[in-house]
Amino acid sequence: MRDLIEGLVSHPWGQVSPSVYETGRVVTFTPWLSGHEKRVDFLLETQRPDGAWGVPDDGYALVPTLSATEALLSELTAPEQAAPEQAVPQQAAPEQAGTGPRRGGDRETGTGGERLACSVDRALRALTDRMCGPAASSLEVPDLPAIELTAPALTRRINASLERLADRPVPGLGAWAGRRLGPPAGMDATKLDFVRALLLSGAEVPKKLMHAVEIAGDDAAGLRRLRPEPTGTIGASPAAAAAWLGRRPDDPNGPARWYLETVVEQHGGPVPCGFPLTVFERGWVLAWLTRAGVPFAVPPRLVLSLTAPLGPAGTPAAAGLPADADTTAGALYALALLGAPHSPDPLFAYELDTHFCTWQGEDGASVTTNAHVLEAFGQYLASGPGGADRGRRTAAVAKVSGWLREQQRADGSWSDRWHASPYYATACAGIALACFGGTASSAAVDAAGRWALETQRPDGMWGRWGGTPEETAYAVQLLLMTGRSREVMGVRDAVDRAVPHLVRSLAGTEDDRADEPALWHDKDLYRPSAIVRAAVLGALHLARTRTGTDAGVSPR
């Protein structure tokens, strides 16, 4: 627990797994940046045996596979790229500063070039066989942010590189020269062309588009209407910042470059997506620990970091992103639990007729955003503040509760657009309804508990593709924080079988935990390690205090 809380302070931008998608974009757009060779190695080392990248689901593998393939192709086919003048600190070590082989250099020949070409060949086969063109007609594409832009943009760049192979042959890739990938998962480039034209026109664009400005390709470099935030970020995205800087930045020592250097430092080369995520991470960690009853001391600076960004429209996850209902609700819920309640009224900016949107103009709706809105209003009302708006807030609780019940699947679970696992969505919705949904939500909460019990794996874990400590923690929390579900026969046994897996997750090294899959939705799947660790700690504490299970040793 001490390590977790201290980590929130010592890593104020957050703790997030590296992203294949974002790392590929940084490789392509800023090959002069520190750690370039390590980023290329990261892409090579994380490729799956079947040629793709990411989790074992072709829909989720589409974007990271396209990004890694395009980046490695660029290494082999783009002209040699020298570092911009004064772009590398003189005191940096040669390898760290990226002064090793440049694209277009000795990667085309020798062992390094053969490895790159072999990787690209396997990747192109995976894309053509399963993800692009006619083979992808039945591919189920997940609801990842901007996927309808990133996938066509990457396909277009890959096809341009394949065209270059005809003029600049690369050993091992001759069969691909002049060939073209079909549309990714059936997506065309109509929306991409519209958004690119909008970005390049100089017109005002929604701030959320800045998170994916790299879809403008090389034309994103130096876009005049874009200026880095005080943190140096463009859209809270390393890919967007790299595209804006480009291969020959006008100001290689400006804030955007140093933002990227700061991001690179976290993993020594590879970069995460959606970074920083200060408010989002701290709100989730503090709320989840507090509601599970875990005793800990909260540094005042963490409370301040949740209150300071709050404005009339709430708070963004971090600088460079627009304010949103999900992060706002998470911060408000945490503050109310910590005894520092703030009015939840900024959330009314996101109210629709039947539910709350994550942001205005959202294409779709989020179960977990609405679950967090329910918690924010419900906990604030429970903390005692009255006033003339109490009736409106109570009505919001009833509205969101009803909408969440309507979204429940027939089997008792929920799914959501911000997480790949139904266990996260079901825990969020089930716990929120159990606490604030009233008696009308009893049947929904009981159905969620039954679903969790029925889907536990033989080894005692829970998970969508395989058992994971993260999803196991969500299932344990659901079973132990929804009072009615605790009365269902089998809960104690289910929790007992899960606890050893949670303990092993905490006892392992950070490298061990890095092997746990990324399940959270951004342009690529990511793993917010501090948030996941808080979920596991909360689940273990609940197991000890509500079932008497020793969190160190399994009763079995």
Quick gist of this model?
The chain has 556 residues and is mainly alpha-helical.
Q: What secondary-structure arrangement, pairings included, does this model have?
A:
Layout: H1 2-10, H2 20-29, H3 36-45, H4 58-77, H5 110-131, H6 147-167, H7 190-201, H8 238-245, H9 255-267, H10 278-291, H11 300-307, H12 325-337, H13 367-382, H14 390-407, H15 422-436, H16 442-454, H17 469-481, H18 483-486, H19 491-507, H20 510-514, E1 520-521, E2 525-526, H21 529-546
Antiparallel strand pairs: 1-2
Your description of this structure?
The protein is mainly α. It is 50% helix and 1% strand. Strands 1-2 form a two-stranded antiparallel ribbon. Helix 12 (325-337) runs parallel beside helix 13 (367-382). The radius of gyration is 24 Å and the shape is globular. The model is unreliable at 87-102, 104-110 and 551-556 (pLDDT under 50).
Please name the defining characteristics of this protein:
single chain, 556 residues, mainly alpha, two-stranded antiparallel sheet, 21 helices, 2 strands, 50% helix, disordered C terminus
